[in-house]
Structure formats: C-alpha cells, structure tokens
Amino acid sequence: MVQGKNVLLVTWDFTGMSENALLHSIKLSRNVETKIRLVHVIKPGDPQIRLDAEEKMKKDISRIQEEYKILCESVILEGSLFSAITEYLRDGDAIMVIMGTHGIKGPQKYFGSHALKVIIGSEIPFIVVHDKPANMERVANIVFPIDFKSENKEKLQWAIYLGKYFNSKVHLFKAPVTDSSLVKKVNVNLNFAIRFLIQNNLDYEIHTAKKNGSFSKEMISFAKEIDADLILITTTKHITFLDYLFGASEQYVIDNPVGIPVMCVNPKASFAQMGQFMYGNT
After folding, report:
1. In sequence order, what DSSP letters do the residues of 152-181 get, joined into one string?
2. Is residue 108 pLDDT above 50, yes or no?
3. Residue 234: beta bridge partners?
4. Which of 55-69, 138-152, 164-178, 240-254 is modeled with the greatest confidence?
5. How far apart are the first and last CA of the chain?
6. Pairing relation of β-strands 35-42 and 7-11?
7. pTM of the entire predicted model
C-alpha cells in the first residue's frame, strides 16, 4: 500500500456509468483492502443544489451499503469537474480514482474528453471504465505497452502493485520501432520491466506489434484477443491543444471500442512512493 493512501475514489454523477465504476472499485477493494469514497462535483454558490445533491447521495450510499454489503463514504465538492477533483486529490488519501465514461463524443473530439482533462491534472492514476466488470474476482491479464519513452518505468509500479494482489499475467506489448537509437531505448525499457516482474514473481509474456498501422489500434485488438482485464498506459506529458485537436493516442485507448478498462498513469506521479512493490518486498 502507498504510505498514507488507502481510498479508492469513485467519480459519481448518479448515472449507470458511475455504478459501473463503483463495481470496479468494489472488485479492487476486496483484494487491496481499501476504502471506497464517492465524489460528486456541483456548481458553486447555490445552497439548494448542494442540499439536493446531499439528499441524493445519502439515498445512494444507503442503497449501495445494503445492496453490495460494503461500507462506503461520500464527499461533495464545489467547482468545475476538472479543478475540483484535481485539488481534492492533492495531498489527499486516495490511491487511485475509478471513473466511468461515456466516451469521446461531439465537441469532446476537438477539446479533449472529460476523462482525459481530469486525468492529466492528477498525481495519482485513474482507471477509466465503460462497462461493468467482466467478473468480480480477477485481473488476470494486464496489457502493458512498451515504447521508447522513459515514462514506461513510472507505470511499471502499478502493474506490479495490481499483479501482486490479483496474481495477474503482464503482457508486455512492444512498439515496432526500426530506428536504431529508438530500438535501444525500447529494449532498455523492456529489460527493465522484465527484471522487476521477475523480482516480484509475476508471470509475463512478450509480444511485438506489427511494423505497419496504428500501435494503439493494434494494442486494443491484441487486448481483445487475450480477453484483457486492463490496459495500462502513461498519459501524454505536457499535453497541448493540438493533442486534443488531432488526438492524443490515449484518447483512443481510453475510448476503446471493446470497453476494456484503462489505467492511466500521469508522468507527474511519484515513482518513489511505490518502492516496496518495485523491489520485491511485501
């Protein structure tokens, strides 16, 4: 467990998508022994909106605890979805956020998905989900793309963290680079990942994408083929308007058409906090 962090935060807007995120958090909490807290964001300045939200949240908490036989907390924040959650997470006790999404639709294709805007401001990872969990017990297969970027090492800690609790197999999916300098960087990242997976007694396989076509699309097809439970990616560092306009690759992975949950690790995340998992300690 990350020191001082033991909460799974679930974004809650009283929709079925929120319920799907809740189910994923229940699945995780049964294995990693965390608390579950629902977070709802309202516009500031209207006491009636807050009262209405508090009443709806109270009813939902009561229903959830009765239906799923779990303890569940809640918090209501005021502000924009992006800034309120980002500020709340800063120096908080959440280890990760589970967010349901309806996908990238309409104007979001040009201005960035709601999910991605929240994720890039966070120092803790998000798991973005579309559907209910395929099962409530296992995270059997994790797809872990390997490219030439140094941020590969930051997300490895989370593959090990989840892999240890769920006895997962990590599928290392290599980018098909041909440039000699990039090949070297990819192999360095691959060997780094293998070394720590072995130290932590985690099963793994190595796969290489084809040399043509979209790496992201091929990775999603591969994830579907092996019935993956999770895809683990790093978000674009210093994302810009042009990334939103032309499509940062993670937008399409998050919005994957087969509905596989995606864990997004922001490059700002602290690498040192998870050292006990990286180096094989329990």
Report:
1. HHHHHHHHHHHHHHHTPEEEEEE----SHH
2. no
3. 265
4. 55-69
5. 9
6. parallel
7. 0.87
The conformation of residue 239, written as its DSSP 8-state character, comes to -
- 7 bridge partner residues: 35, 94
Return d(Cα 132, Cα 229) in angstroms, integer: 11
Please count the other Cβ atoms lying within 10 Å of the Cβ belonging to residue 163.
22
* Helix intervals (H) in 9-46: 16-32
The tally of CA atoms less than 13 A away on the side-chain side of residue 275 is 3
Domains plus CATH for the chain?
1-100 (3.40.50.620), 135-282 (3.40.50.620)
pLDDT in tens, 64-88: 999 999 999 999 999 988 889 889 9
Q: Tell me the per-residue pLDDT of 124-170, one tens digit each, with 9 for 90 and over.
A: 999 999 999 989 988 999 999 998 877 777 789 999 999 999 999 99
What token pair was written down for 270?
Answer: 């602290």
Quick one: tokens of 201? Answer: 């007694």
